[in-house]
Automatic annotation (TrEMBL):
SUPFAM superfamilies: GIY-YIG endonuclease. Residues 2-78 form the GIY-YIG domain. It comes from Mariniflexile litorale. Coiled coil: none annotated. It comes from the Bacteria. This is GIY-YIG nuclease family protein. Belongs to the UPF0213 family.
Amino acid sequence: MKKSFVYFMTNKNNTVIYVGVTSDLLKRVYQHKTKIYKGFTFKYNCDKLIFFEEFDAINQAIAREKQIKGGSRKRKEELINSINPEWHDLSDGWLFYFDR
């Protein structure tokens, strides 16, 4: 069964939090970092993965994404701080897989 993910991206100053859902986290983070799509994350330079959760099915991930998006920024920050209190880029080193 294919896994799905809810993930948060931010910019270098951590002033913007983007919440997304995907079935291929590695590919999606690559797309954000290389700015392939000219949407929200391109406009606000969100290229740092700071949080993600894994699900067994895409419908679970979509439901969780809606729940998170309906919450406050404070709640998003609490989720991030629970696993990544320094707000490090969790995808550091991932791009090397695409450079092969």
